[in-house]
Target: 3-dehydroquinate dehydratase
Amino acid sequence: MKILLINGPNLQLLGVREPGIYGNDTLPAIVSRLRTLAEELGCELVDFQSNHEGAIVDRIGAALEEGVDGIVINPAAYTHTSVAIRDAIAAVKLPAVEVHLSNVQAREEFRNHSLTAPVCIGVVAGFGADSYGLALHALFSCLKKRGQK
Model:
């Protein structure tokens, strides 16, 4: 089983950017822990981060050719603005879980609406870096139930 992890804009700044909201973990530290978890679950994790909407859309589109079974995605600010990322997720028809470090529902009003959530099988938010592990577990479980590799 192959899982694609996508991180959107500014997430390369984790550990420095607003630690009161996003925590002190860096993105490489989070990805490292997720790789360990993926190995324990028996799946492969491929990670990608970009600040550019088109690059994220391209990466989602390439997922089918690469044998990806599911996607964990933190679209970051694009959650609330990107019809293109939403449409890419819908187009590939791969199960996807949206993930956020903070509880976006408890923040500014503009963060309360996700364009990507309706094309995802679920959303995990508000548990800091643990949100990623919860999302990976949920996606893995869903894929196993669907009879994926």
